[in-house]
RNA sequence: GGAGAGUUGGCAGAGUGGUCGAAUGCACUAGUCUUGAAAACUAGCGUACCGCAAGGUACCGAGAGUUCGAAUCUCUCACUCUCCGCCA
């Protein structure tokens, strides 16, 4: 969430910037500032009262020590009278703080200056396109048909055992999946990311830390008996490693990577978007996460996008890079680049990576800070990106590389798969 | 699942209801000494909020209670550890 101190100082800029994402913050910000003023004066009053009471308490202690019990009783009466109001005031301060937080929780991150205005994904800016769309054989099939033809993914079996959106990968399909994971992880390691295997279930605090809760409550699977959430992305456990942590400035850059399955309920999705591998409830993803010094976070963002582009180039997939518009920008993000691969048989661009800088928006909830040269605690910047999400990569690979004689595996993967063709 | 023990500052660890934001040790930072380092010595060393500042307030797992006053007493909850059982 946004920092109240920044809202105090830059109210107008923030309101103006939030318009880019079609968020009218005027009322809520005015309200927050009004409540904040009220809170500060109530807090001052309460602190003063407590200071007075603390003084009397000391007096009583001294009087008892010097054996003046009767005088002590007089002061006791004074103290009691003074404190009569305290609970009311205390409640008021707590209530105001809660109100302020409740509003702050609902205000999205301030978009970066270069975020284009817009309402929907059609307003995203295509920054560049790389590679050429393949020309497919006449009777080219979409990946779900190919999956059946070569018996490498079984969607119906998933329905039987679990439900829609939980496919089985079989034989070479499973091997290819594992090959991609290893290829991605090796690449991340070479780029200096530390590999992590995190828990797949997290507690509520972690969900709040990275901002999935409370806004996306319904998107996560929840285990009511133990009150855990299944991770929708490894961003959640990885970034929460640094919840309530004050790092040293010399620790930067902090670079983590993890392969995990991801679980998403995807309530309300339907139609051709969810066909085959396009949208699943459980899917595999390799994620890269960075904790950065505020001065370096945008350079880090560029590095991360380049990293993802290298992967796509190595896989010989046609892709394009989008700068998300205000309307499509995630709640917690200040700037996001999406990378989409072209899946030829579907004739669709599929989002395979989303790389974001959250600046201090997550760090503020996480209380993730570093000590600067003056030994002051300053909020760090957090970033993350998919590198990459597996199913749509698989879809594009299958569709784009199909031939009459089978499906060709990109050269870079062959050492990982052990076969060149499906 | 059963039984027990515990939760204090970066870590270890003390703490009789008032002098405790909290001993001590280690770690860390700066200085002295040294050709340099180590050792030794000296000093500093939690977090957050309010305030221009002086200063003030809060925090000893969380929440509530007793009291003029709670790290210390009472209650509720959460978590951790140990042993036993079960198990990949």
UniProtKB/TrEMBL annotation:
The alphabetical list of record keywords is:
Aminoacyl-tRNA synthetase, ATP-binding, Cytoplasm, Ligase, Nucleotide-binding, Protein biosynthesis
Q: Which GO terms describe its molecular function?
A: ATP binding; serine-tRNA ligase activity
CDD domains tied to this protein: SerRS_core (cd00770)
Question: What are the residue boundaries of the Aminoacyl-transfer RNA synthetases class-II family profile domain, all occurrences included?
Answer: 175-415
Q: Which residues bind ATP?
A: 264-266, 351-354
Q: Name one GO cellular component term.
A: cytoplasm
Instruction: Give one Pfam family.
Output: Seryl_tRNA_N
Q: In which pathway does it act?
A: Aminoacyl-tRNA biosynthesis; selenocysteinyl-tRNA(Sec) biosynthesis; L-seryl-tRNA(Sec) from L-serine and tRNA(Sec): step 1/1
Q: Which domain of life is it from?
A: Bacteria
**Binding residues for L-serine, per the UniProt record?**
233, 264, 287, 384
Sorted alphabetically, the Gene Ontology BP terms of this entry are: seryl-tRNA aminoacylation
Q: Where in the cell is it found?
A: Cytoplasm
Stored NCBIfam families? serS
| The protein, known as | Serine--tRNA ligase
Q: What species is given as this protein's source?
A: Putridiphycobacter roseus
